[in-house]
Amino acid sequence: MQVEVSNLQLAAAARPRYSVIARFLERAIENPDSNYTLLQNTTILLPSNQALIDTLLRAWDNGTEWLRTVSYNIINGLYTLRGLRQLPRNAQIPTLLEGANLTKFNPSFSVALGQPGTKLYTWAVVKIPNLYNGVFLKAHGVDRWVVPPVA
Prior knowledge:
Blueprint: H1 7-14, H2 20-30, H3 35-40, E1 43-46, H4 49-61, H5 65-81, H6 93-98, E2 109-113, E3 121-127, E4 135-139
Antiparallel strand pairs: 1-4, 2-3, 3-4
Helix pairs in contact: 4-5
């Protein structure tokens, strides 16, 4: 089943900057038949590095097992691919994030997201200078950026 997510839907979801990923994933989980199509075919713009931290922490604190797994995997990927050791499963994520320098990411690298026991999809996290100083989360293989308007 193909699911289209409009720029308007993403822009509305992006207004509370701290909950972009959490709301997006919750909406996907509400419709299990389409959640991976949704994840595969959508790109999200977070307006700042602080927003990325806030969003990951909100997803981590949400309590939903899948959201916790996704937020952990994003954070783990950011640290691992910056050449740091893999985070332990019992890591105190807020403490580790406090020391993260989120302005010096590699221009392009991949983070695996997925539900246990299912196929993982790979996302790329890309820092693009001079474009709202934003951090993009882009589904691997998608040939377009979906950029919500800046409110």
